[in-house]
Amino acid sequence: MNDRTLDISLTVNGARVQDRVEARKTLVDFLREDLALTGSHVGCEHGVCGACTVRVNGEIVRGCLMLAVQCDGAAVETIEGLSDSGEVSDLQAAFEQRNALQCGYCTPGMITAAQDLLRRSKKVPSRDEIREHLSGNYCRCTGYHAIVDAVEAVAQARAGARK
Amino acid sequence: MKPAPFAYKKVRTLKEAVALLAKHKDNARLLAGGQSLIATLNMRLSAPALLIDINGIRGLDGITKKGKFVEVGALARHAQVERSDVIARYAPLIALAMPHIGHPAIRNRGSFGGSIAFADPAAELPACLLALGGEVDIASAKGKRKVKADAFFKGLFETALRPHELVTAIRIPVADKNTRVGFAELARRHGDYAMVGLAASARANGKGLTDVRLAYFGVGDTPIRVKTAEAALADGNIDAAVSALDLEPHDDVQATAKLKKHLAGVLLRRVAAQLLETRP
Description:
Chain A is α+β, with helices and mostly antiparallel strands. Chain A has six helices and five strands, in the order ββαβββααααα. Chain A folds into two domains: about 5-80, Ubiquitin-like (UB roll) (Roll); about 85-160, Orthogonal Bundle (DNA polymerase, domain 1), CATH 1.10.150.
């Protein structure tokens, strides 16, 4: 091991991971290439498109703008984890039901960002608030309306379920 | 693309960071939030031999009121600044600007000090600092110094920072009941870099204004003050202020120079209205 290759220890979707990585490897490449978690997508690689959105220590980040070595000691969650735990199953169903995806490339990042908004909101967010929170996630297929519809429907359903 | 290989060192103290900087100077880059740096590494616009990760230094992310200044630690994240009660109360211009910076995932990582040190001419915070007449606290192995905002931004991505120095904190004068601030920007997509933006501060003087400071961003190599327009606005003449705008923007991917000049006038009218609004 030298300063260009480092040992890291972290949790990914709750599982302990220990690995040796090149310093230059981004978090999203580490997840995809080393851990075979290919749900996080690589789009622009400079922080514009949002396809690589994952959670680190509970907060959404760009997987292409963090290095894997920076996640030593961190808790990382990907769409695979959010999906397996059932945390986003209602969002996934609503996206399917309302045609909020076509090619699906942006969907993991979109759902991760949408869930970030919904779990932080004390009330049902407005359509403008939904658009604002998803403004960092590009979708080139849908024109966004169906995505906003799906997120809004889930927000209302969850608020109804809380009453 | 992927970054070229580099060595990585995570430091735990400021002393360690400045010692490494003193040794490696221009061959090293500081990694704070990384939201601009890692993008430039990925595109190979930058290929340093060493990244010095300063995220493990404790005590560099505080947001506190200290006498006549609000002190924002260099590592304070945008999201943290956005939610801060101290900022909302004592630095209202910063509070107005925060939601315009990037997107939620970017604001969770991006740092206040990083934005100032990087000095992107289209970024919000350098212009806010200039409009507020704030100061930058700088440390190196040789000691500490302060630089006022008016002397900090030198050229395109160029500041008063020397290669062996790092920003430790930003200090902003505390707003009081006579402080007036205004902020507006036009971007093609919310959260993107602005085509043109304007940050402003002034002091209320009866129905008029004094100490007007107007700092444009996205229209030149640095955030730019427009002093003739500031004087005209202090005289209460908005039309004269708009005609006095002496900006010389260049065409870029966002907009033509002609459009930028037009929008600069539009923003000045909007921001002037905010400055002249009476506060309860």
